[in-house]
Amino acid sequence: MKQYEIRLTGSGGQGLITGGIILAEAAILDGKNALQSQSYGPEARGGASKAEVIISDKEIVFPKITECDLLLALTNVACKKYLKSLKKGGILVIDSSVDKPDRDDITVYQIPIIETANEKLKKSMVANIVALGALNKILNLVSEKSLENAVLDRVPKGTEELNRNALIEGRNLIV
Amino acid sequence: MSEIKLMQGNEACVAGAIHAGMRFYSGYPITPSTEIAELSAELLPKHGGKFIQMEDEIAGIAAALGASLTGIKSMTATSGPGFSLKQENIGYGIMAEIPIVIVDVQRSGPSTGMPTSPSQSDIMQARWGTHGDHSIIALYPASVKEIYTTTIRAFNLSEKYRTPVILLMDEIIGHMREKIDLEELKDIEIYDRKKPTVPPDKYLAYKVSENDVVPEMAAFGEGYRYNVTGLVHDETGFPSGNEVVADKLLKRLINKIENNKDDIVTYEEYMLDDADYAIVSFGAISRSSKVAVNELRELGIKIGMFRPITIWPSPEKQLSELSKKVKKIYVVELNAGQYLLEVQRIVSGQCKIGKYGKINGEIITPQEIVSFIEEDIYA
Amino acid sequence: MPSELITNYFRTETLPHIWCPGCGNGIVTRAIVKAIDNLNISKDDVCIVSGIGCSSRAAGYLDFNTLHTTHGRALAFATGVKLANPKLHVIVITGDGDSSAIGGNHLIHAARRNIDLTTVVFNNSIYGMTGGQYSPTTPTGDKATTAPFGNIDPNFDLCELANAAGATYVARGTVYAVNILEKVIQEGILNKGFSFIEAVTTCPTYYGRKNKKGSAVDMIQYLKENGVMYSAWQKMSDEKKIGKFPIGKLYSKERKEYTEQYQMLIDSLGKERN
């Protein structure tokens, strides 16, 4: 497996950093190497938020991502800001509320992540988990079992069922 | 049983500290070091230790020094502005020979700068931040696993040499999460300060016994009543204005570190055996440099990297040897050129020196280093 | 022949002290030692923490665990000592500038926490060690080397400050009313919480001379004439209070003590100290 670099972007409070941590933990459960990092402004809610995950079978040396293989963008602002950092031939996953960008050298998945969390699961806070379910369906980076274990390990007690469903609903968004 | 987990750098620092025996933490919240305080607050009382959030950065180090005098291993953590505020009491710890670990998760400055952006610009503050002539130990790990082991080493050295030890980190390694196997690290040796071997009436608090490097250290409350002061003092611990006493004390405090470099200095050499060129780099940026070395080698340039893990005292002997072997040393650091000055001093004309730095709050990428060095060599 | 109090509790080899003739600091230091002696506390269990300034030199002369720290930081060091080893009786010796200017922040927060420390402020209304500059307790209008035309700063009432910040025992004594000073220090040590004792002392060399207060004896005479027991003070009219100040125990209250609260936290988490 080559080194795979993922950037999760949106606004603060959407749980993207937690999402990044879960993905990295799932990779470690699979016996792979993973490195997670983030950048954020001073605001805990509402500001631009970016989490990065690098997954590899080998040692990960440089800890940051310059050009990513996959970009998730949950807001228009984030999509505009980070689109140029997506590799040629890369994958863009955007929420259905985000405008489809004008780039023909990438594969775009435009899916209702936030709507699924809000309407189907009745909990906006699980949008990050819905996104993880979808991402992993596309990439098959980590085993479904490890992803589920990593999710259940991080989420608050009593929300296990909700989060398990969020993963399933996310997976179902990709056909 | 393996205990493999994803751990943040700041978290690994606390885990390593507790492994080393830290049972007291006092500090003040500051980005990007705050997770160290948060995790200490959670873990210490569970280990019978104490955590206190003090009213300011100065009190943060002062309380830790006070706690250490009762025989408890203590730590405080901060970042640039707070590191500046702690400097006077770092000097106190040096003068009074109090073991303590001070973590500085470096961020961009000067002043408030860019609080969430990385930097390596406290290299010289770590060396010369407190006033007066002194020597200092400063360590700088580059990975989550190494943060764990180096934090333990920081405690061990502070106990062994009875001196504050600065653990330098940066926002990148402090906040990133990496794989760590705690099972593999569980047997790392711990060093505890040497207690008095004489009864209280024979105890001279600042007398170094033959074959020892530092005075034996009694804890307050154990029956050895002695005086601790930041004033120049004689072997009894009482203030003295005598120039002979002052000269002897200050030289002893400097030499206990400078004369034991072989024990204190650690470093990593990467691809240096056949190298014509070398990069000197540390902390997060050494990871960029390592990738750059690999890529430059693919371009046919024989280059390697020297990474000081002990920043102060600097690996003088090793860098001097290196300068006799290579044509040029490139100092690559996330600042405007601080360790560069130390490398220049050591190399002293034995080879050429180049520098690559950055002060805009962004990491130096491997590509930047490759282009810079390639251009420099073929220019 | 020095008194037994001196031979038992002072490091006589460090004497004579550095204080000027007529300075009241020796009287306050003796009162602290007398209070400890009255309470029969083992010297090994006492830790004296001081800052920087004339008063803070007292620590070095005393035969306890002594910690002479940096300017203003005595209370912060003492907080670490006490929290790390709650068995120690920690007494902080500090001055007016040390405790209320450079160390003012530590004072209000130590009082807020109600950590079991006994703080004795040697208040001589001036920075003596540096040669007579005005401090936060120099009365408005008084002169100092940095207030050659008279001090325009309003001055602190340290006892009111400590009380407002949460100290659970607050008292004032003077170097004239030594019995009262001893008594309040003793009560301060017994109080399980933050105790604050203002010891009004004399600096004939700088404060006295700059402000034409006469000799050391005149200055002590002033303390005798103007320090009024708190019980009497409470019955005085506002008019009569002008120029005078209350001494003795001023305030006490019940609040939870910090290190006990922390120990309860540790106990509730169910682990014994390693």
How is this structure best described in words?
Chain A has one domain (4-172): Pyruvate-ferredoxin Oxidoreductase, domain 3 (3-Layer(aba) Sandwich), CATH 3.40.920.10. Chain A is built from 6 helices and 6 strands, in the order E-H-E-E-E-H-E-E-H-H-H-H. Chain A has helices spanning 16-29, 76-82, 113-120, 127-139, 144-154, 160-172, and strands at residues 4-11, 33-40, 48-56, 68-73, 86-95, 107-111. Chain A has a 6-stranded mixed beta sheet, sandwiched between helices. In chain B, strand 4, helix 4 (80-96) and strand 5 form a beta-alpha-beta unit. In chain B, strands 2, 3, 4, 5, 6, 7, 8 and 14 form an 8-stranded mixed beta sheet that branches. Chain B has a 5-stranded mixed beta sheet with strand order 11-13-12-15-16, with helices on both faces. Chain B has 13 helices and 16 strands. By secondary structure, chain B is of the alpha/beta class. The mean pLDDT of chain B is 97. Chain B starts with a strand and ends with a helix. Chain C has one domain (4-268): Thiamin diphosphate (ThDP)-binding fold, Pyr/PP domains (Rossmann fold, 3-Layer(aba) Sandwich), CATH 3.40.50.970. Chain B binds chain C through residues 23-24, 26, 45-50, 52, 54-56, 58-59, 62-72, 74, 88-89, 92, 219-223, 225-231, 238-239, and chain C through 11, 14, 43-45, 47, 49, 59-60, 63-70, 73, 76-85, 87-88, 105-106, 108-109, 262, 265-266, 269, 271-274. Strand 10 (227-229) of chain B pairs parallel with strand 2 of chain C.
User: Total number of β-strand segments of chain A?
Assistant: 6
Rg calculated over all Cα atoms of chain A: 15 Å
Q: Which ranges of chain C are low-confidence, i.e. pLDDT below 50, for 5 or more consecutive residues?
A: none
Q: In order across it, which strands form the biggest sheet of chain C?
A: 2-1-3-4-6-5-8-7
Mean pLDDT of chain A: 94
CATH topology heading of chain C: Rossmann fold
Q: Biggest interface pair, residues each?
A: B-C, 44 and 42 residues
Number of spatially distinct domains of chain A? 1
Main sheet overview of chain A: 6 strands, mixed
